[in-house]
Amino acid sequence: MYAVTEQDRGGNDIMSDSEEFEKLGALEARLAAAMDRIAKGLAARGADTGGDARALAAETAAREAEARASELSERVSALEARLSEAQEALARAEGKLAESTSANQATLEKARAELAEREAERDAALAAQKALEARVAELEAAAAEAPEAADPAELAVLKRRVERARAERDDAIEARDRAQDTADELAEAAGAAPDERVLALRAELRGLRGAVDRMSSGLDELRSVAMGSGDGAEGINRVLEAQVAALTEARKAEAAELGRILSDLMAAETVREEEARNA
Fold first, then answer.
1. What's the start-to-end Cα distance of the chain, in Å?
2. Which three-class secondary structure state does DSSP give residue 279?
3. Would you call 250 exposed, middle or buried from its count of C-beta atoms within 10 A (0-12, 13-18, 19+)?
4. Which of 55, 100, 153, 180 is most buried by a 10 A CB count?
5. pTM here?
6. How far is CA 240 from each of CA 71, 188, 201, rounded to the nearest angstrom?
């Protein structure tokens, strides 16, 4: 009905060995009694020449004693072998228990480190969001400045910077998504359960990226309004510079996420190689 572990078998073997040793004690007592009878028989033989029956009985008892002594020797050897096997099994069980405890501790430490890394990414994204909000507030204040003629060359340079930053941001998002897909596939193949706290942090990071995208769109609208209303070059330039900064921050966030995913993939590969070597 119940599964018997290797350690249980070792314990049962030790209990069985104790019973065998008790039986050995009883046999040794019987052997000592037989030897006493032999000694008495030999003494009586010297005093009584007609005691052939007693001599025969003494010889028979001696043969029985020798047979029992041989049996005892064999049983002692068998018991010693079983005791050695039980001790080896116990040592193996203790070693496996120590390995399991060490592996569980390593897994716990890795989960804690991963959670701390996600929290750091979340804090960095929040800081970037606050910085962008402050920059938008500055741009809204700059919209009230006196209008000036915008420098077409400078505006063209800033526009190219905006487009380049947007392209870099999109490339970072695409690379991040590919790496995340690979990591998810490997985790699913390995049967690893996702950490709910990590999933929550990822959702929060996605929300922050959405906020950055909305800010970038708002900056596009603000730039269009500034150019259409004839606002000064300085105000338009600030809008474009803010947009470049927003896209750069978004690209950094995606690059950090990509680095984290690649780190997870490398760690998983290292674990698989270690398991393959130990197999």
1. 31
2. coil
3. buried
4. 180
5. 0.31
6. 100, 43, 31
The DSSP output letter for 143 is T
The DSSP line for 85-130 is HHHHHHHHHHHHHHHHHHHHHHHHHHHHHHHHHHHHHHHHHHHHHH
What are the pLDDT digits (tens) for 219-278? Answer: 555 555 555 444 445 555 666 666 666 666 766 766 676 667 667 666 666 766 676 677
Q: Count of alpha carbons within 13 Å of 166, Cβ hemisphere only?
A: 16
Looking up tokens 């929040």 gives: 126
- Give the H/E segment covering residue 57: helix 52-142
DSSP 11: H
Q: Residue 175: in which H helix or E strand, if any? A: helix 152-190
Nearest to 61 by CA among 46, 89, 42, 85: 42
Written as six digits, the tokens of 269 are 């590969």
Residue 41's CB is within 10 A of a number of other CB atoms, namely 20
Residue type, 166: R
Domain range annotation of the chain: 6-99, 114-278
